[in-house]
Amino acid sequence: MIYIEPIVYEIGQIFSCLIFFYIFSRLAHLHQKCLSGITLILLIVVNTVVPNYDYFINALVLYLLFQWHNKEKLLLINSILVSSLLKLLAEILTNPIIILFDSQHISTKTLFGSILFVTINLLIQLLISAIFICLYERFNIEENWNISKSTMFGLLIGYLFIVIFVFMRIIQHYQAYSDLISSIMLFILIQCIFIVIIFLKGNQTQKETYTRELTREQLKNLKMYTDQLEHDQIKLRGFERNYKGTIAGLREIATSGDFQQMQTSLGTLEDYSNSYFDNISMQLFKDLNNVENSYLKSLLISKLTLIHQNKITCHFECRDVVSDALINIFDLVRLLGISIDNAIEATKNQPNGEIQIAIIEEASQLSFIINNTTTNQTDVSEMMQEGFTTKQHHSGLGLVNVQDIKRKYPNLFVQYRKNDQWFNLSIVIIK
């Protein structure tokens, strides 16, 4: 260990904690400003009082404080691991500075030497963090690598951190910086390549599994759709035979001039006709032929059937042919699935609940309108907070999940409106 002037060291720890916590908050999507301030103070105290164990105590503090406010525990854990790893890598890259200082006869025991060393250390940490954030957002790593749900990612990053941490502590103990600096860099490079290969392979397998499950669900929904059409078609054939017989009877009544009997028969025919025309194929599935994308059609079949099973009044409309989703189809399916599920959840216990779904294709945009009746007086801003739910003992979906998808696409706009009777959701994709 090298000596640093205490006051310079303390200031350096404060700025280091700021950088570390900024990275963590970006990765974990923190919104609790008051709690963030308290956490930052605790991290600074830990780094100052027990610097040798700061990584592990920091991780414990972050998890204990934020586990109650973050429903995605894996995202929280992975954010802690990645932030800690970046800080550790910055610490490693400052080791060559020690050799440089020795060669230039700059002593960190002086105030100038301490300030110079700490400043370079912070600049390296800041540079690494900035590069990581740019790459993280540029390549949408969180979504593409499914960090919020990937146990493998956490295990691999945890393994990489522990191996590098132990290796560096051994190097520091024997103060063999100059002798092993090349070996350190080579070791870290090999470990990183190893981790990336394993993770990419696992991620590919996970995506293939997800695609197979989605295809299986799609086939199940399409079969349900065709079975319902076949069932309703059989009923309509029977109706056709009876209808012709009823018309013949009406013609005889008209010939006899018994207008009272004709009025009664017409009322009976109307009720009889409504009983056949009021089916899921005629009412809900009538516009599904305009939805050409099989994944989107499968989702709508599933959700419309679920709405029908919950005995919720529903109106579905898609007058124009829709073929191109304009954004990643899996994101669109997830976005619409969350939105319709929220509408079902809000209306299924209402005595006269109603859902309206419309898809509108225009020259410049594709719009999805999802409206549902509501008895909930909660404000929209509260519904968009992390972890909001109307379900008991359940984390809920919440509108915050919709916002997470929205951030990925600059041409995707989501608007909410709410009054005493209706909650209106409008999803617009600009072409």
Automatic annotation (TrEMBL):
Superkingdom in the source lineage: Bacteria
SUPFAM superfamilies linked: ATPase domain of HSP90 chaperone/DNA topoisomerase II/histidine kinase (SSF55874)
Keywords: Membrane, Transmembrane, Transmembrane helix
Domain Sensor histidine kinase NatK-like C-terminal: 328-429
Organism ancestry: Bacteria, Bacillati, Bacillota, Bacilli, Lactobacillales
Name this polypeptide is given: Signal transduction protein
Molecular function GO labels: identical protein binding
Segments traversing the membrane: 7-25, 37-66, 75-99, 111-136, 156-174, 180-200
